[in-house]
Amino acid sequence: MSTTIRIGTRGSALALAQTGQIADRIRASSGAEVEIISITTEGDTSRASLSSLGGTGVFASALREALLAGECDLVVHSLKDLPTAPAEGLVIGAIPKRADARDALIARDGLTLEALAEGATVGTGSPRRIAQLRSLRPDLDIRDIRGNIDTRIGFVTHGELDAVVLAAAGLGRLGRLDVVSEFFELSHNPTAPGQGALALETRQKIPGDLARVLQGLDHQTTRLTVLAEREVLARLEAGCAAPVGATALIDSDLLLLTATVYSVDGSQKLTASHGAVLDGSPADRNAEAIELGRRAADELLSSGAAELAPLS
Ligand SMILES: NCc1[nH]cc(CCC(=O)O)c1CC(=O)O
Fold it and tell me: What is the reported pTM?
């Protein structure tokens, strides 16, 4: 490629790590020059809790503005932080292969959730994680925490909390899987739609050589599973901070999706599991994945999901 690809990123360690990893892949596959441009977002500067910021889009919007203003050509988002509504003038040009979608417990003395003492303090700001923790261990003292991944790990290593829950993918990207004391299985603890996946966003109109670079980074299986998972959120009209877990997987030609909505106190949940056979063209498959997410969400809504939990 003749021109430089400018990638916009937040300044957090996680954003820099995942942007750097994508930049390396672009350089290796295309030989293109890649420049990394730092952009500050409200989600980075605000001290309010993530749920009080409304969740949706606090990290994404400044990056999207920079894209639209032509300050950069590409941004790398954590897919789970990206609002489901499409952004005018922008497209997701590639969804690379997903990392581990599970949540992980980081606990004092390497304890598992089951082994934590009665009334132990566990930090998380996510309503979904709060509900899942309360359903398994109603005795725990759950604390709302904020901050980047290193700060959250520090709550445990500095002795302020007995444990925190974080996404395995973020820990992996920062090379911090050594602190994990337990991985929660997706069958028991489904995670946020799109967790562990990245979205590479660009302007709608891009040069053909950038489009080809992005095509080379796209991963079909990841794209189909996250399309199904994210359609659950979209159809429920739920934000990324809603107490909703969704996990899709592909087994040969079968796409399987399980979606769960929790009451915030963890005492109740609704689950819908659906499958679809994938056939036809890539566009047909995308449509089938979205339709699967819609069916799961509609079942949840007709079972009372909107009454069970605050979704938006
Ligand atoms: N909510 C913040 C956030 N957004 C993306 C990740 C990393 C995992 C991912 O890319 O899905 C995290 C940290 C976490 O949830 O522990």
Answer: 0.92
